Amino acid sequence: MQNLPYDAVVFDLDGTLTRSEDGIISSLQYALRKMGAAATEYNELKRFIGPPLRDSFKQIGFTPEQTDEAIRHYITHYDREGIYLYSVFPHIRCILSTLKKRGVYLAVATSKPIERTMRLFKHYYMDRYFDCVIGELSNDNQLGKAKMIKRALPETYRRAVMVGDRKFDIEGAKANGIDSIGAGYGYAPEGELEAAGATMIAETTEDLFRMLCPDCEPPRGFFLTVEGMDGSGKTTQINRLAAR
Question: Is 223 left (phi over 0), alpha (psi -120 to 50) or beta?
Fold first, then answer.
């Protein structure tokens, strides 16, 4: 690890490790339709990626009772379809693999409930990379990002950094006295990460690799194609190939 700037890295999930907008926004749209709310444009809903789900529905103007019902509708759709619409950002597996081989402590701190986080990680073969995964206990019992980051950090470390795409990640890093890298390729509104005081901004995942793994050569990749009819198991085989 002598060439690496950090020996402990904590990642956010949505908008940092995974491109999650299709899964989250489709579930939000489903919940809004079930609630009889006015249709909301896809791009307008992007701002709700990152904060706790309950806060997002409050911003729409729902009462506490309406928020509870909307969350139930959201979860129904997310568990049935939304979770399978995620994808891992390019180069993320490369970054995690390189850091892991160098002995860096890797963790996740996400506002997503822990049970769904682990189910998502297992489906996309991401759980093998991390020493610790911290999520909210439920949509109703919120720890907040600062506490989650504190729990995700190891007992001892030389220098740590939080990588996230929203101001909550940057503010949580500050509260714990560690550096922060803003994932500019994620879902933050323009200028949010800078205003929050991110130590650095990674505009692309290639930038993130250079920040976390300077002087490291990216591992050689593969170009593979999997063909088959709908329902023949392509996604299963792709995930198994990725795991290998």
Answer: beta
